[in-house]
């Protein structure tokens, strides 16, 4: 059960047993012990890993100490652990970074009645799936949105759709 129960920056609080027992968010508010949890085989079924500002890929952060090194450390830890056999790492970004994109955002139905009517997509952001199940070198050109990650979790864990 999730709802608007917490002050910003969280915005929501999830208190249901499925959430509490199977999901953890590693972020700036909870210093990320993710490498320790991987080494000790203590990851829950779903882990959201959100970098602190110094570990993000936002423009202006030094590449050598920022996001790429931090992400590589986590991916390598998973790849060298027992988790690798049944883990999907879904790597994405929260915004497009202000860089040029030659593809305009897709048009969305705006008839006032269709589900999602009036919703406007923004510029594309990359999504990379890292897994022993991933197709090597495969690039999909299908448009998705962040809700696609939720849909993957619902289908993978046999959960009822949220929306």
Terminal CA distance? 13 Å
- Radius of gyration equals 17 Å
Question: Structural class per helix/strand content?
Answer: alpha+beta
Task: Outline the biggest β-sheet.
Answer: 2 strands, antiparallel
Domains, number: 2
* Overall pLDDT confidence: 79
Major β-sheet strand ordering: 1-2
Model regions low in confidence, pLDDT < 50 over at least 5 residues = none
Q: What is the H/E order?
A: EEHEHEHEEH
Number of strands: 6
Oligomer: single chain
Shape: globular
Per DSSP, the total helix count is 4
Describe the secondary structure blueprint for this structure.
Blueprint: E1 2-3, E2 13-14, H1 17-22, E3 23-26, H2 34-39, E4 46-49, H3 67-79, E5 88-92, E6 127-131, H4 147-156
Parallel strand pairs: 3-4
Antiparallel strand pairs: 1-2, 5-6
Q: Which features would summarize this protein structure in a list?
A:
alpha+beta, two-stranded parallel sheet
Descriptive notes:
With 163 residues, the protein is of the alpha+beta class. The protein has 2 domains: 1-86, no CATH class; 94-157, no CATH class. The chain has helices at residues 17-22, 34-39, 67-79, 147-156, and strands spanning 2-3, 13-14, 23-26, 46-49, 88-92, 127-131. The strands form 3 sheets. A two-stranded antiparallel ribbon has the order 1-2. It has a two-stranded parallel sheet with strand order 3-4. The chain has a two-stranded antiparallel ribbon with strand order 5-6. β3 (23-26), α2 (34-39) and β4 form a beta-alpha-beta unit.
